[in-house]
Structure formats: structure tokens, C-alpha cells
Amino acid sequence: MNEIVLAADLGGTNLRMAAVDSDGKVLYRTGIETPRSENHKPIVASLIQLAIACREATKKDASVTAFGVAVPAIINTCGKIFNAPNLPELNGLEFSSAIASKIGVQVIVENDATAAAIGENWMGASRDFGSSICVTLGTGVGGGIVIDGKPLRGIDGTAGEIGHICVEPDGVKCGCGSFGCLEQYSSASAITRMAVELRDRYPKSLLRNKTGLGPLDIFNAGKSGDALAIEVFRRVGYYLGIAFAGLVNVLNPEVIVIGGGASAGWELFIDEVLYEIRKRAFKQPAERVRVVRAELGDDAGILGAARLALGK
Ligand SMILES: [Zn+2]
């Protein structure tokens, strides 16, 4: 009989939970909107409640052996939350021990972007590769790194913050306190901001007078040939390519995986990404590295958390 683990992806908006077997098959899934409060109790209570529901739903198959949780936070090696910018009520929480005592199995907690990289490396776009980088273009830009099959966490658990690589030294102020971070030029929110900043230069653009502009509008306009939208996504690719060229020189990865909502604009930015990598990085690693689209969508974090719980 297969081993079964519980896996959760705790996001700022949604909390997803699944029971997953050792082949990476999702046996049962459930989820709710992330309950928000001034303290961590509603989130912890919901995680426990959903975990128990998943365990009950699959108890005929096998008993659950561990629980992996992906969290949008910097986490130390003992499972304590250092900093969760989007869920500040979790700051300082001894996450693993808060949940393990109620579930009765070991709880492994991991940064969500690193979990997504592990998930893609197990069941998704980088599954045939030992060394991969996974970048998620969402509200922010998340990054996870797997080297020789092992996640790179760093001594403080802060490694992989690709979204905060500087690509424009005197650029837009970032939430992290620095300036010109990749996140300010390649996230979904950056795409909207850049379109608004540039639209006076494009009087014929379909987007010029549109209210409530969002990344999907800009992507759709780009697909139909709108010059403003094409320029916005060219810039996304330019800045991603600068950051990737540095990563290629430092880490020599086999593959870079791009996921997240803003990766929908792939066909509008990928040529620029590849151009900048080849222009800037050393020839051999630049020619080797593949840049591919993520395959697991919203399941990347869950499957990464499951893989950690399986101890693979
Ligand atoms: Zn930053």
C-alpha cells in the first residue's frame, strides 16, 4: 500500500489542502479562503480542521505519516516563522510544533516558493533535472532553487529571494526596503504599473483610456498587437533576462521554470528573456540552460510540501 501524506499550501488569499500518495497522486483535496485575524489562531485552527478532514477522507487507503505545509514566509530551520509579509499574524510562531501536537504526525514547514520549486522538480517541468530554478510571477516574484536535487535554503532560510535581485539600481522602491528589485518590473502588479506609466507615449493604444486596468487586459492587448502592451512585456522579459543571466553565471542551472499568473504573457516576453541571458551570461551555461513554463499551476506548492513530508 502506498504511503499517504497531508500537504497544504497556505496563501494570503487561499488555503489549499490535499492528501497525496508517494507517487504524487492527489487522493483528496479541500480548501477555504484564508481566515484573517490579528492573531494566528484562526489559521492554525483551519489547518488542523482541514488536515483532519483529509485524513478522514483517505483513512481507508492508508494512515497518514507526515504533514507538509508551504507558507509565504521566511522560516528558520526549526520551523519558526521569521517574517510573513502577507500574513504578519504568523510572525514569530513556532509553526511546526503548534500543529504537530494536534495532528499527531511530524509537520514540515517550507517557504512557498521553495515548495513550488520542489513540486515542479518532483512532478512538473523540471522533473528530469537535478539543478533548477523556479520563478513565480504573481503579485510579487517568488523564487525557489534546487541544486543537485536539494532545495537551497541558506544558513537563515532566506535563500532563493530572486524577486529581490536588483535589476535597476536607482529604480522603483521595493517593499523589502531596497530599490529596483526584479519584483518591481516583472510581477503582475508591476505589469499594470508599467502600462500606466507608459501609456501617454502610446496615444493609439487600446489601453490608453481603460479604467481598472489589469495584467490580463495588457496581455490580451499584446496578443492583438497593441504596441504599449508589447513594450510592457518586452520590459518584463528584459528585466527577467538580466536577473536570470546572473543566476546562470552563479548557479549553472539546467533549467529555469517560470510560473504564476503573469507567466500567461509568455509569448510576449520569452524571446527577450533568452536574448538577455545569451547576451550577458557565460556562453556555456547560457547555451545549456532551458527556460520553460511551469506545469503544475496551483498544485506546485502542495506537491512540494507533500514531497518534503514524504522525506524524499
Ligand atoms: Zn525588494
Helix amount? 25-40%
Count every beta strand, where a strand is a DSSP E run of 2 or more residues.
12
Task: Please give the CATH architecture of the largest domain.
Answer: 2-Layer Sandwich
CATH topology of the largest domain, which one?
Nucleotidyltransferase, domain 5
Order of SSEs, N→C? Answer: EEEHEEEHEHEEEHHHHEHHEH
Categorize the overall geometry: globular
Strand order of the largest sheet: 3-2-1-4-7
- How far is the first residue's CA from the last residue's CA? 17 Å
Radius of gyration: 20 Å
Tell me which ligands are bound: zinc ion
Instruction: Summarize the biggest pleated sheet.
Output: 5 strands, mixed
Description:
With 312 residues, the chain is an alpha/beta fold. It has two domains: 4-119 and 299-310, ATPase, nucleotide binding domain (Nucleotidyltransferase, domain 5, 2-Layer Sandwich), CATH 3.30.420; 125-294, ATPase, nucleotide binding domain (Nucleotidyltransferase, domain 5). Helix content is 38%, strand content 21%. The protein contains ten helices and twelve strands. The strands form three sheets. A five-stranded mixed sheet has the order 3-2-1-4-7, with helices on both faces. A hairpin with a 5-residue loop joins strand 5 (74-75) and strand 6. Helix 1 crosses helix 2 (95-103), helix 3 (112-123) crosses helix 10 and helix 6 crosses helix 7 (227-251). Residues 164, 174, 176, 178, 181, 183 line the site of zinc ion.
